[in-house]
Known about the structure:
Blueprint: E1 6-9, H1 19-23, H2 25-32, H3 42-46, H4 51-62, H5 68-85, H6 93-102, E2 106-111, H7 115-124, E3 133-136, H8 137-140, H9 148-157, E4 164-168, H10 171-179, E5 183-187, H11 196-202, E6 205-207, H12 209-212
Parallel strand pairs: 1-2, 1-4, 2-3, 4-5, 5-6
Helix pairs in contact: 2-5, 4-5, 5-7, 10-11
Amino acid sequence: MSGKEYLIFDLDGTLVDSMPFWENLATELLHRHGIDQLPADLHDRIQTMTLTDSAVFIQELFALPVTAESLAQEMRALMDQHYRNDIPLKVGVYAYLQNAYQSGRKIVLATASSSVLAKDCLRRLKLLPFFDFVFSCEDVGQDKTQPTIYQAAARYFGQQPNKISVYEDALYAASTAKRAGFHLIGVYDHQSKKEWTDLQNLADETIDFATVVKGENK
């Protein structure tokens, strides 16, 4: 358990195993529009974008005869189904959050997903009561290549960054939080295991929730 009283958690890849669904979203969307031949690096190119920005990118790249806004709505609808129905919780997360909540920690979410989708997912997985607030990149107007969302959470807490732990699995987001002065806890995720060594070197602490639940500390 983090020694800090104030905790910021990422959602995708940190608390829930949603990254396979996000990685397949552009493919799922484009298949619906009759496009099966996709660039091999498409996911890498949109990985750090908000859903709105990725819709604009996809609309322009494939010259689709629909608006970027309608694509974004379609993508939200697809992910809404997944968040409400089948995105699973990562092993060990519930017990960890419950312990943090019961010990009096103040907890917020900072996610690149929309706040509505995030809340739907947390509610289904019985996690929503643990969180004081849900921050979304779309709501603050910047993705996690910028520290805006973490700074918004710090203002909410009324604390300086060094008093707050940020839990992130993605190296680019973790780097942003670290540069902004937050206490960084790197979270292991099998989808980003290629970055794990770099994340371990960057982070102040690391954790694998699946081993914590077995009584092993990372």
